[in-house]
Amino acid sequence: MSGAVLPSPAARAPRRLGHAGFWLASAAVAALLILALRGLGSEYAYFAATFVLQYVVLATAWNILGGYAGYVNFGAAAFFAAGAYATVAAGKAMGLGLLPCIGIAALVGGALGFGTGVLTLRLRGAYFAIATLCLSVVLQTIVVNWSYVGGSRGAYVIRPREVPFGFESYGGYLCAVVVVLAAASVALARQIETSKLGLGLAALRDDEAAAEASGVPTLRLKLVATSISGAMMAVAGAPLPFLGSYIEPNSAFGLSYAVNAIAMPLIGGTASWAGPVIGAVLLATLQQVATVTISSAANLMIVGVVLVVFVCAAPHGIIGLFRRRG
Amino acid sequence: MDPDLALLLNGIVSGLLLGGLYAAAAAGLSVSFGMLDIVNIAHPAFMVLGALVVALLWAATGLDPLLLSILLAPAFWAAGAGLYVVYHHFFERRGDEAIQGLAFFFGVMFIIEVGLVLAVGPEQHFADAAYASTTWRLGEIDLPLRMLVPAVVALAAIGGLALFLRRTFTGRAIAAVAQDREALRLLAIDPVRIKRLAFGISIAFAGLAGGALVVVQPVDAWSGHVFIGRVFAIVIMGGLSSLGGCVLAALAFGVLENVTASFFGPSWSPAVAFGCLLLVLAVRPQGLFGRVA
Fold first, then answer.
1. Are B281 and A133 a contacting pair at CB < 8 A?
2. What are B166-169's contacts with CB under 8 Å, separation 24+?
């Protein structure tokens, strides 16, 4: 894992943006993207962009724990679905709109991530991965048996009739919200990566015992990482009920979210914020194209094959390919 | 007899039978995950592959499904050995098996499942053994042969595996590679060859478990998912590399799940069993029957 993926700080220092600069830059990119999508103005463009960008958020969130800290989370779907169901429950109980629901989803996901962290702190590697898989099953069982949010029948979420902020359709508004979420999560991931937290996580990824011995508070860092990662994954799932107007446990907890959340950062490269973005845009676009032109079974096949080929042939992802040659 | 007591007894007995099936599914993983330290997430997918191949062959030939799965075992062994060669070449040799290897098996699982959907379709397949509709009755307790025969065959196969691991030279080398592969080199045994052999055995057991599964219930391409958590749970609860612990954990797991299903409804049974696993992981990570490393 180490070596090729950790460039020396001195080599990159001259063209490195500050945190504020990067946040501004991602805000600018988000604004441009929203304008460009408005220019296209087609409902399908909005839907496809939302689909791709929710994966950008999910992959970036997974990478904070999986890439920076080296803890593989197989329960991405659980956090994603927790966010989606937080929207359903909060919307039904209090009649809240999308934005407050996203906030609630972040709280739920953060709490869930914190709980998972507390429960599984002593586990490493494969054990952590399996514990998260179990968490996913437990959560799905609870949702299936929770009739308030529809149980196994699923729940319908009606898009509000009035569209806020002068967007011409609710799809456009939803898409703009997800664009902002994606930009914010990428900027947050980059901030974590270049801060002391990121350095600590990288240290415990490479050798947890050595990091602990040299004074890195591994326990606290892991808890912070699981909480942030969980909150962001839940945020990625929060708009899902509005996107399809319908949600049911089997698809919300579907393994395709878990496999995508893992495949995208690994294909892009796990050591930097750009990896999950590249992987998510590439893979999600490919899937969207395959769904439209071939079939939905084929699009999962593509993910599997691409994942296997990449982990075999390019263990450090697309970014690793360029770094080694450059 | 008190109906509640009868229900409980029946739940326990059929839970034990179900546990036999789980033991078959988990035994192979106990070899690959427990002994070889290969986190083969795709194990249940191989089981489903076995189940569907058996179902197709049964439809074509009419032979007994369990017999077919035993006949298929060499083919599964070869597939497993081949997979290990790839895994070793790309991951183990380079030393980054942790995340990359997990992702590799995750991808393999997806390819198997989607490949099955594309090849045989998404519908359920089944194979009816000659004894499938017979049920023995002992007083109030039912013993359906559909469950009993696969469980007995599975336990016999696991017994054979345990004997092989304890009595033969190769078997002991497999147990040794789990403990210290460098020491094995000093004895002039090639650890890679031993691991290839052992991984083949684990996949062969997955195929066998598939044959047992298709006798018990109809199987579709995605049936493996519910087993991923279960088999890993069983292997961890059993203390990783101990086959005896694995069988005990499987039986306990089957009983727990079945009793919950009988009294609270089947939709709750996964949560109880997995809750137990989460507890075991949090409180006693070395497993119920494992020793402290």
1. no
2. none
